[in-house]
Amino acid sequence: MFALVGKLVDYRSVRDGAVIVEDNIIRVVVPAGELGEWGVDEVYGGENYLVIPGLINAHTHVAMARFRGLGEDLPTGEWLEKIIWPMELEWTRKEIREWAEIGLREALMNGSTTVNDHYFFADEIAKVAERLGIRAFIGQTVMDEVVFPLASPEEGFRFFKRWRNRSELVTPTLAPHATNTVSLELMKELAELSRETGARVHIHLAQSRAEVSEVKRRYGLSPVGLLERAGLLNESLIGVHGVYLNDSDFERLARAGSTLVHCPTSNVKLEARTVNLRKLLDLGLNVALGNDSPNPTGILDPFIEMRTAGIVANLTAGKAHAVPARELFGMATVGGARALGLKAGLIEPGYLADLVLINADKPWFRPLENVYSLLVYSARGSDVEKVVVNGKVAWAKPS
Fold first, then answer.
1. Rounded CA gap, 222 and 249, in Å?
2. Which CATH class, in words, describes the domain spanning 55-340?
3. How far apart are CA 393 and CA 100, in angstroms?
4. Is the Hydrolase keyword given for this protein (predicted)?
5. CATH superfamily of the 2-54+344-396 domain
6. SS3 for 18?
7. What digits encode the pLDDT tens for the residues 277-317?
């Protein structure tokens, strides 16, 4: 057993205390003065430390760290056609392993205890995640409306079956690329497999005008309407971006219990627009946060994404303080946990011991009073000192 000591912060409360970890769960939360009664082996933290639930990076492409900074300032279409797709076609398994490790290490050291990744060569990414000790939901990207050999549906199904119930840390998902690159027939197959197994379905959703117009042309439906016709509109669905959905689409997602992953840095950089976050939360839609790809966003730091989400929310709502810092922090913790079906995101007995220790002995944490605001608008990944995943220290800042 070991303990993390400091100011304990989750979406529900802020209190001083100690979190005692045994096996892979939080055994108990006690006042720091009572630690001696529990016989813990190690104590981490203390005064001027924050203990938070692990941040959940609900949409990533970690291996795309390889492309960071390339094609900067090109229009999205040119960026994909001239930079990304040609380089992706040359991927080798060795390169994927190397760059997935770079991306996963970056996510981990910045406080992400869980990533939800969507990419090619998913086997290699899964092996790296397991070795590094990060919790990972991983889907092999599939497409059948676009000729792209790396995204064959057969490989997507094979990956899912190979990794189902295989690992304590890696959970396979079903990963159709987008509503315009995957046929209705394949969507229905994925829906059936999801119903049979409980698998999450992770999909880019209305991320461009071209996607929306193509789905309308083929089926006379919106992207959400297509997912509903395929049988995918339910609590297992994790849609990403949604920047070209309308109010009716968001209402349908909320009623179905689905999740939307908000990636404001990526949205604004690539499309110069994003969702009205305040409106989505008012609908009762579960919203999680994701960094998306290190290219184009440049980062795998969930603190930066929380901050960006809060600032951009004011612009889309047309008013200041549209989404309080506490709600933003909740999206990065309990929102992600709900999306992935994890008993995580809170500092409570019986919850997964996915925790982050933050050194708050820094000028930008003074005064240490409104902790939610400090975590969202002042903290950064470099403040993370230890990351615990599944009850084990997965990363610690060198002393």
1. 8
2. alpha beta
3. 20
4. yes
5. Urease, subunit C, domain 1 (2.30.40.10)
6. strand
7. 999 999 999 999 999 999 888 899 999 999 999 999 999 99
Q: Six-digit token pair at 290?
A: 């994701």
Backbone phi and psi for residue 56, each to the nearest 5 degrees, phi listed first: -110, 110
Q: How far, in whole angstroms, is CA 294 from its chain's centroid?
A: 13
DSSP E strands in the chain: the ranges are 2-9, 14-22, 25-30, 42-53, 55-60, 112-119, 135-142, 170-176, 201-205, 237-241, 259-262, 286-289, 355-359, 384-389, 392-396
139: closest CA among 125, 118, 165, 123? 118
CATH 3.20.20.140 positions along the chain are 55-340
What's the token pair of residue 121? 């060569």
Identify the CA nearest to 291 among candidates 31, 57, 68, 1.
57
Q: What is the distance, to the nearest Å, from the Cα of residue 295 to the centroid of all Cα atoms in its chain?
A: 16
For residue 247, which amino acid is it?
D
Q: For the packed helices 223-230 and 209-219, what is the interaxial angle rounded to 10 degrees? A: 50
CATH 2.30.40.10 in the chain is located at: 2-54+344-396
Q: Three-class SS of residue 230? A: helix
Task: Read off the amino acid at residue 360.
Answer: A
Q: Give, in order, the Cα–Cα distances in Å from 346 to each of 21, 51, 136, 206, 354.
A: 14, 11, 18, 31, 9
Q: What is the amino acid identity at position 238?
A: I
Which residues, at least 6 apart from 168, have a Cβ–Cβ distance to it below 8 Å?
24, 390
